[in-house]
Amino acid sequence: MRLLLFGGTGAMGTLLAREYLWVYRGSSLVIYVRDPAKVPQDIAEDPNVVIVQGELDDMDRLSLAMHGVDAVITALGPTGRKGPFYPSNTPIADAYIRIMVTMKGHGVRRLIALTTPSVRDPEDQFNLPMAFLRKTFATIAPNVVKDIIAIGRVIRTQREELDWTIIRLALHSSDHSDPENNCEVVAGYMGDGRTNTFSSRHGAAAFIIQELDRREWIWKSPILSKP
C-alpha cells in the first residue's frame, strides 16, 4: 500500500499518519504539505515517509505526489477561526476538484475525505443537538459552511470514477480523561439512535485507516461519533 495524505500536519492528520504507519508497517506514506517543518519529527524521520512540498493549486506537484499511490486520504478542511472573514468562494472544495482530477489522471480510485456533519446525507434524520450545532456554525461562519457543503457536493459527483467515502466527524472531545473507553467510535447517520454529537480523534483515526481495506462505506457518508 502507498497512501497519499493531505492535511497531515493538523491534529487529525498527524493521528492518521501515525495510525497508518503502525497498521501498515513497511508501507509508504506520502504527505503533501505546504510547510514540511510542521510535520512532527517522529513522522518526518520515519523511513517509510515521503514528504512532498507544494500548494493545493500546483498541479505539477500534486501529480508528483500522486505517482504510484494506491489510495488518498484528505484531512483538509476550511478553518472556522476566520469566521466572517473566510473567503466567499470555496477554496477547499476547489482543491478537492484538483486532487480528484489528479487521482483520475494516475488511475487512483480510492478516496477517503474527512469533513463535518454540515454535509448532509439522505439517510440523516432530525436530531435536535446536531441541528442546533449546524445552525449555530452556519450563523457564525457562513462561508466556512458553504465550503464544507461544496466539498460534499463535488465528491459525490465522482461516483462513477472514484470509490469515495466521506467521513463526517462529530465534535472532538478529549481522549485523555478515560483512555480505556474514550477512543471507541461508531459509524452511522444523524438521528439513527447510534451516533451523537461527540467523537474521538484517536478512535476516528483507527476507523478511517481500517476502512482503507474494509471498504464497507464506499459511496457513503457516515458520521463517526462515540457510542
UniProtKB/TrEMBL annotation:
NAD(P)-binding domain ranges (all copies): 7-213
Lineage top rank: taxon: Eukaryota
Example GO molecular function: oxidoreductase activity, acting on the CH-NH group of donors, NAD or NADP as acceptor
Pfam family, one: NAD_binding_10
Family, as annotated: Belongs to the avfA family.
Name used for this protein in its record: NAD(P)-binding domain-containing protein
